[in-house]
Amino acid sequence: MNKSDCLCRVCSSTISDIFDFGNMPIANNLMPVINDTYTKNEYKYNMKIGVCINCSSLQIVNVPEKELMFNNQYAYFASQSEFMKSHFEKLGNKVMQLMDKEKDYILEIGSNDGIFLKYFADKQYKHLGVDASENVVETAKKNGVNALCSFFDEETSIEINNKYGKAKIIVITNTMHHIENCQEVAKGINNILAEDGTLIIEDPYLLDMYKIGSIEQVYAEHNFIWSLHSYKTLFEKHSIKLFDVEHFDTHGGSMRYYFSKQNLNKTSTMQEYINLELNNKIFDINTFIKFQENCINISKELYNFVVSKSKEGKIIAGYGATAKSATTLNYSNIDKNLISCIYDSTPFKIGKYTPGTHIEIKDAKLFTKDSPDYTILFAWNHKKEIIEKEKNNKSKTIWVEYIPKLKLTYEN
Question: Which residue in 99, 283, 301, 342 has its CB near the most CB atoms, within 10 A?
Answer without folding.
Answer: 342
